[in-house]
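Sanity check record (used in CI):
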Amino acid sequence: MVASKIRVKNVSRLCHAKPIVTVNGRFSGPTIYAREGDQVLVKLTNYAKYNISIHWHGLKQFRNGWADGPAYITQCPIKTGHSYTYDFNITGQRGTLWWHAHILWLRAKVYGAIVIMPKEGTMFPFPKPHRETEIILGEWWNSDVETLVNRANKMGLPPPTSDAHTINGKPGSLFPCSLKHTFSMEVEAGKTYLLRIINAALNDELFFTIAGHNMTVVEIDAVYTKPFTTRVILIAPGQTTNVLIKADQPPSRYLMAARPFMDAPVPVDNKTVTAILHYKDISKTVIPSMPKLPAPNNTNVALSYNKRLKSLNTPQFLAKVPLKVDHHLFYTIGLGANPCSSCQNGTQLTASLNNITFVMPKVGLLQAHYFNIKGVFKTDFPDQPPVPFNYTGAPLTANLGTSLGTRLSKVAFNSTVELVLQDTNLLTVESHPFHLHGFNFFVVGSGIGNFNPSKDPAKYNLVDPPERNTVGVPTGGWTAIRFRADNPGVWFMHCHLELHTMWGLKMAFVVENGKSPEESIIPPPMDLPPC
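Expected output for Laccase:
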């Protein structure tokens, strides 16, 4: 069992010190190491002033939503002074995932890596690296994040962007007071290293590169890929990417760097975070080489990178893509504005799927489902938007009101689902990374403009599409995913931009197998937090 304590600790970055919520006093948090097939127990005790819950991002939690973690979806949060033990099995998964707080904006500080090694005697499907290193990309605000968010909500506006991005909790030498807050990785000439890269940022897709070095992508979201070589990767919030690098350049010091990708008129923290790739025996006085990153709005680099991602699809690691579809779903992603008498402009910015802004319940949805508590949610989430329109045409700035509700979509156990996520130009087009809890899915298609149901499915990749748990919907475009609903319970799906999740860009699926919840879902733990 891993004992973890949620504590407040003073941390200094960018010449600013502030108290932040941490796990075991660390920022970023500790890595959990496990092996495929392991049972993992994490006892979490909350000594902070905020209620807390932890999500184990990408772990499927088969029949065990009680361990999934999103507050008011599969559990009520752990109150100050209380404990809860997350108890889960790692079945059929290996690779890099991560954990993070799943309440308020606490994942700005509370996050860490999960490294799952293959079963004993099972090799990687790529050359064994000399060493492995986790690279966790995050964000830093000089002011208290929760205070900024609460102030912005009262005004009906978005909070300010972060003051810096970080690599393993450190912003790098391009920022003030940051020479000692720069992550450094030592390598030996001629040897190969595995980087386990995680985007734990709240609101930014990121380009990542290393000066002078190629990267070979071998895994995404804990699923092996067909290897390919690239100078830059794109990684959305919530995603993980494993790359091999070979220390094959003249021994020196080289910068790793990350900066946001944003091809819409939306403000982001566009500053560059750096870390150092340091060849052994090279003096620290050597000035490291700076890599060239794509322009922040370089859509071509982003799209071409994502097109290269394909599942490994070997006999040992099959891509089990659903070829027959039982449920066709089409969800539009929209921004909006609802009346707010106390807000600065008389409106509150909001977001919706199929024009529904999700309202968080006061009771965990899984508890309501399992114990048959009435009045908490409805299972009438629509399969299509209420009114078709030219989704990505001219910007729409009128009639931006949305419906409010805690509405879920009911899906039969073991049925196959195709979901098309369509961006819209309500206020503005924008890219949206979506995360589905409880499942992996196959990204069978993507495109710019409006999805065409009579033409676009013919272009799907049904042989070796990338398998993920988090996918980006391109700016002014669409993404199609397929998955098999083989995990009974209540499973959250939401935008992994924290701002849009806060504004209501989320929903949940109820997967039922014809039996009562007591028969299809494992019983809740004795120490499940009360609501």
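The first strand starts at residue 2 and ends at 13. If this sentence no longer matches the regenerated tokens, the check is flagged for review.
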